[in-house]
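thoughts on these tokens:
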Amino acid sequence: MLAEVGLASLAIAFALAVYAALASTLGARNHSDGAIRSGRNAALLTFPALLLSAAMLVSALLTEQYQISYVYEVTDPRTPALYRVTALWGSQRGSLLFWSLLMSLFTGAAIWLNWRGERRLMPYAIAAMMATLAFFLGLSLFIENPFERWWLLPDAPPGQQELSSALIPAGALAPSESALRAGAQGLNPLLRHFGMVIHPPMLYLGFVGFTIPFAFALAALASGQLSTGWIKATRTWSLIAWIFLSLGLILGGRWAYDVLGWGGYWGWDPVENAAFLPWLVGTAFIHSVMIQEKRGMLKLWNMLLVIATFSAVMFGTFATRSGVIESVHSFARSEVGFPMLGFWAAITLVALTLLLWRWRRGELNDEHQFANLLSRESLFVLNNVVFIALFIAIFWGSFGLPIISELFFGVEVTIGAEAFEFFVVPLFIAMYILMGLAPLSAWGATSLARLGAALRAPLVLTALSVIVLWASGTGLPVALLGYGVVLFAGYVALYEIYRGAAARRRSLGESWPRAGLALFRRNQRRYGGYIVHLGVTVIGIGVIGSSVFQTEAQHTLVRGEMIAIQDYTLRYDDFIRAQAVDGRMMNIAPVTLFRGGASIATLRPRIDDYAQMPMTIAGAHSTLERDFYVLLISGDHERATFRIYINPLVNLVWWGGILLIIGTVIASYPKALPARPPRKREGADG
């Protein structure tokens, strides 16, 4: 019954999405308010239909309905309840259904919030969102159906008696429940980590969220409403999508750090990069639209950026599901690759055709011109150029060169981390420099003398910090350069917050806390952005420390033996082989960590033996200063081999990510009423 209800509600959602797209488009073209409202209502109904469908699949996962092939493939009788729920997005078919559920949720929220304010945009926006949803639902319904069940065909030839089908084949019988339970495969061990409970949903929310600005941009091009209305309608959606995508990337890095067992958090894996690419273009878009709002400029450029962001989302989704790339993050090869490629190409072509048409009609002309190179809008554009250059370099290294070399030359080419870093590190340096310069500039025109005066305090603080770092033993020139550039951007953000609060203290006599709070209340977007910049600064410091100064060593120790590494001492204590409650065998090698002669931690690096593959789980002692990270390579009761990493400042990557999210939430939070200074009362009370 769960499969039947889930399949029926999925089919209903598909029909509603197709109808909503057609009715909204025809209603807009024929100026039929009834058709537009009908399309809106159909779009809103897709969410409850998909919620029911997803609920049926989750119920099947929780109640061990192994006849449903998806349940059979991603769980087994020993799978914990938490991972049964998260198995909804643990493989191809479930993740497509989950993606569609989130898309219908975002669409409903966008309709609810913008229906009255943007009535002329809404029909086309609904059509774009529903066309996207209908495509993904079509994949789920006709190609990757999560409600297919196992059937036995007794009369079929040997080897063809087992069949997976959503509908009951003629003469088919259901397999025995005991046989299905015994053969259930279980969740991929790589996904049995708390980070993977929330990492994929965050990425999906980011991907789906960027569909909303694209849909409104497409609506603006189709309707001719090319003022800033579509930007205002999607400003919050862009920031929300950016929050979730940022959080997804950070959680993905943490998952890699904890699970993949190589001592790092970012390896320039193609699927990592596939999620990073829309973040880069989306970041450029968020900065660039501010210029259009403030100065009426970059109308064509902003349209290109929002189309490119959505295109990057669709390409990333295609790349992880088509089998075009090999990665620990990617889904297996499937039949969805070519349909996804076709949809991605078709919707991008439609958007670019509309854009070209409006541009030739002169409807995307800018209202102002750039005054000089030092103006804030000029520096923002230069920052955009850096983001796009990063996008091109990472896309070419991850996908362009490998795919072209294999298709045309039959040679498999893989770009390593060193090659990526050679190209992207200078671009990141430029990004941090521009991140520091832009806030100190002014809209319109800025003189070199004015900018130089504003730079004085941040540059002095940066120079003093670099001197302190050098005096404390950080003598590597590349590290000093990196720290200096990153700190400069952070000091500018702090200096701008300080200047704003100091101005309120002088003019209104407010205390520092009250002045700072009022500052954020009056201009949440600007000062929330400074908190984001501080978060990016903290991440940059963590990246430099953990990459430039990482220490790696490998040692084989006899039980009871000790080894000194920097100012730590590690002792191999014991070897334990135990069975976990979910059936896996754990090979644990407890070690004691000493520092300064005192015991500071007992770590338990281990190797878990799953049916699918062994998993190496690190033991780590974390402080704000550094991580001591140890892996068990092999071992027994006599001796064990360990690989050890000391990662300075690595935890600043995670703390900086939290700060980045806080700043974005502040910037996107519904604007409060302006804080009014208290009036000075004259005379006596009464």
Residues 21 and 206 are 23 Å apart (CA to CA). The chain has three domains: 2-255+298-336, 448-547+661-668, 551-648. The first helix runs from residue 2 to 30.
